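For homework, think about our next protein:
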Amino acid sequence: MIALSTLAAQDTTAYDFTTVVQPGMKIGDFTFTDDTIIENIALNDQGEVAFIANWVYDQSGAIMRAVFTPQRMVAREGDIIEGRYIDALFGRELVINEAGNVGYEAAFIDTSAPWVVQCGVFIGGDHFALTTNRYLLRRKKDSDGKSIPPKPSDHRDSQREIPSVVNHHGDVLVFLHLEHGFAVLLGTRRGN
């Protein structure tokens, strides 16, 4: 009798999984490849997803980062948002609220004071929210004035373990390392 009550008390929730992003998929003008690195993932209670990805974008090995939802590229390094040039996106800070607004932290250069790099919080691809009052050194430049990119090996080394995210409804967002590439899957609970 105890065994039957224990079995009945176990969670037998099943999930339906859909692929959010994987190599070969295209969002905006960017096509994800096996070499794309997913740096962070976020999930709200509505089941909406945001993530930050980076990739090597030219022959010099320069790295580009961008914030995405499954429907669009929200912002990328090099964008100008309310007079602030996005110098570097940080993969560690990412949220998506119940209205679907994506928040992220970035290093920026105010175009009115281009000699200073600051850190701030941005909402979506069109709003600067606040500065964190942290200042950074500008990236090193070569003799032609171009930013010196990180070495290509830094790109693959930046892949880290990304914890799964669960919202208040029990839906789960999971990152998977695959033999060739990756996948981000959204699991929605059945029977809710």
Q: What stands out?
A: The CA atoms of residues 36 and 192 lie 34 Å apart. The chain has a mean pLDDT of 79. Residues 31-162 form one domain. The first strand starts at residue 15 and ends at 21.
